[in-house]
Amino acid sequence: MKQLGMILLLCCAAPAIAHAEQSWVLATDLWGTRTYQTLTLNIKDQVVTGNLDGDEITGTLKDGNLVFATSDATNRVSVTGTMKSNSLAGVADMADTNTPSVRVKHSVTAYRIPDRPKGGPTRYDFVPRDYSNTFDPHRAPVLTVWPGDTIHTTTIDSGGVDEKGVTRALYGNPQTGPFFVAGAEAGDTLVVKIKRLKLNRDYADSLDDIVRRARNTSLAVKSTELGKAVRWKLDRARGVATPSLATGHLAGIAVPLRPMLGGLAVAPGNGSPAISTGDTGSFGGNMDFNEVIEGNTVFLPVQQPGALLYLGDAHALQGDGETSQYALETSMDVEFSVELVKNKAIAMPRVESPTQIMVLGQAGSLDDALRAATSGMVDWLNLDYGLTVSESAQILGSAVKYSVANLAGRSVGVAAKLDKSIVAKIKRVR
Question: Which H or E run includes 368?
């Protein structure tokens, strides 16, 4: 949320000196709800320039006091506080959001984003100490990274168990993160390139179940005894999975492994509370889309400063829809890189493979998810390829493929897919 006309008066703990451009995250506590903005400061001699969520600011630095304002004075906001080298705490005075003639005060805090290390893109090895059961915009970042950087880390399974069989978190798709991507702002697109997904243990857990959405009345009557746990053996050398105690018709059956991430998300939008890791939205979430695999690229709409990227709920294998309620739930080593597309907003998650472009629509019903996926693909064809709605309709009518991505959550997902060969001769405009 932009707060136009902001003036900040920062009472520094020591006389300020001239320094290079600084990036900060400014948090304002609005009646118990924190909202976040990106603040950039350039200080040279006594002149202050920069921006607040893209709004240009100008000001001065005199006698240890920093004063600056955006160019729009119609919604004047002032902040006084104590600023240290990497943190700020103070109070904001601004117009009431419903009654502009009434002034209200809110506390503010801020922290400075570290400067990028010298030497170009970096590879980080991050060992998680704890995990999150929510996609939380207020959770402190575990690591700050920059576009072009690569991160190697690990996930635990949906029950909270790590690669050694030790419970590390409460069940419910606990996530690793969030990772703060410096430079990411609301309205950008975060690009997550999945470089490697490596199984790090020899078993996975699932159920002998069929989700209720996939049952008709007759099947429901036959399914009353379903829902029992099934342990799967993961033969990493052969690349197959087998039910550990399989007998009868399933004795000797083996299915090929295809590791994927069920959970991948940025923090939800401005003023949003933390959202359960069982849920989905425009920010991504518990998508359970079996194309979030090694070698593919996922695009997510940034909704908070730094994006705040979460990942988890690794599956050794999952059919379309996760119809057994649990896929082959396991832990995993993950390696990914991040990039940013500045000032390009997308409405919902996208996935790109070497051969396809895919849009994931997520909603409370399959009808609504189908509509979202179709609309999202039309938007992609328009923004990136310049196609009109009529031209997109002709492409979709002859070539689109749909898959049911998720049936197991509180919301469902439908993916619209197009082979790249169909649009290969169309020049991208963005």
Answer: helix 366-385
The 10 Å CB-count burial string (b at 16+, else e) for 90-124 is: bebebbeeeeeeeeeebebebebbeebeeeeeeee
DSSP string for 337-354: EEEEETT---SS-EEE-S
CA 410 – CA 244 distance, rounded (Å) = 30
**DSSP-assigned letters across all residues of 263-325:** EEEEPP-TTPPPEETT-EETTEES---TT-BTT-EEEEE--STT--EEEEEEES---TB-TTS
Domain chopping of the chain, boundaries? 6-112, 131-202+257-343
Tell me the pLDDT band of 64, cut-offs 50, 70 and 90. Answer: low
Q: What would the pLDDT profile of 197-239 be if each residue is shown by its tens digit?
A: 999 999 999 999 999 999 999 999 999 999 999 999 999 999 9
pLDDT tens-digit series, residues 108-136 = 898 999 999 999 999 999 999 999 999 99
Per-residue b or e along 400-413, where b marks 16 or more CB atoms closer than 10 Å to that residue's CB = bebbbbbbbbebbb
The answer, as to whether pTM is greater than 0.90, is yes
Domain 6-112 coded CATH 3.30.950: no
Contact call for residues 350 and 282 (beta carbons, < 8 A): no
Contact 55, 71 (CB under 8 A): yes
Question: Rounded to whole angstroms, how far apart are CA atoms 425 and 430?
Answer: 15
Cα(167)–Cα(273) distance, integer angstroms:
27
Please tell me the CATH code under which domain 131-202+257-343 is placed. 2.60.120.580
Token couple for 95: 């117009």
Q: What share of the chain is helix, strand, coil (3-state, %, to 5)?
A: 10, 45, 45
